[in-house]
Fold this sequence. Notes:
- The protein is mainly alpha-helical.
- It has eight helices and no strands.
- 80% of the residues lie in helices and 0% in strands.
- The chain is globular and about 45 Å long.
- The relative contact order is 0.09.
Amino acid sequence: MISLTDSQKIGIGLTGFGVFFLFFGMILFFDKALLAIGNILFVTGLAFVIGLERTFRFFFQKHKLKATSFFLGGVLVVLIGWPIVGVVLEVYGFFLLFRGFFPVVVGFIRRIPVLGSILNLPFISAYVDNSESNTMV
């Protein structure tokens, strides 16, 4: 079992609440307050889980500056009060930031019994394999 420090446990809780508030804010027709709270909790929780220095190193790498600017710009736009535009910017930045992790996630999902058989269907498998090979760096 993986041992977690107290700050990592707090970070997991903050990140979980952040995802919940983001999802709930989108369900309630892009409620500005819920989205803003979700953004703040998600980014704070991420910093608690992986550490402040590693968070800055992750977000501010040279090849990830465009993705970081879209993601943090989207957070700022949501905080200003334009939730739909901000969420679109955040989602685009999120996919640019974490596109290197998607092949790992797909490989993990393929080992799950029901989801793996769905991903191995011919039309889905062709799309996932194509997108997986395009996102590899």
